[in-house]
Design brief:
alpha+beta; 5-stranded antiparallel β-sheet
Length: 136
Amino acid sequence: MNNITLQKKPAFLFLLITLLITSSFTSTTNSWEHLGSRTVNYRLDKDVIKVTARKGGFKKLKVKVTGGSLNMYKMVIQYGNGKKEVIQLKHNFSRKSETRIIDLKGGKRIIRDITFFYDTKNLSRKKAKVHVFGKH
C-alpha cells in the first residue's frame, strides 16, 4: 500500500504545478482591471477618470457604483487617437449596482480618459463612488 502512495505523489505534484502555472496565465487575461474611481458630489456634476496608455488597450468596460446612489446620464470616452465615443447610460444606480458590459467600437482601444455626467440622488446622505473597469 505504501508503494502505491509513493508512486502517485510525483504525478500529483506534476499535475498540481501544471495547473498553478496555467491558471496564472489565464486569470490575468480574463479578469477585469480597475481603471479608476471618483467620489461624486451632491449635485449635477461631471468627473473625469484618466486612463494611461501603459494599461494597454481595452475591448470592454463596466461601471460600478458603491456608497450612495446616483443618476448617470452618459459617459464620454476619449481614445488615444483623439476620437471620442459617447455612451448614453441613463441609469439610476443604487449603491452596489453596476452597468451592463459595454463593448467599445473598433475592438481593442487605448483610452485616454472617461468623463461621467451624473447627478446624485442624495437620499441616503452618502456620497457615491464611481468605479470603472476594463477588459482587454
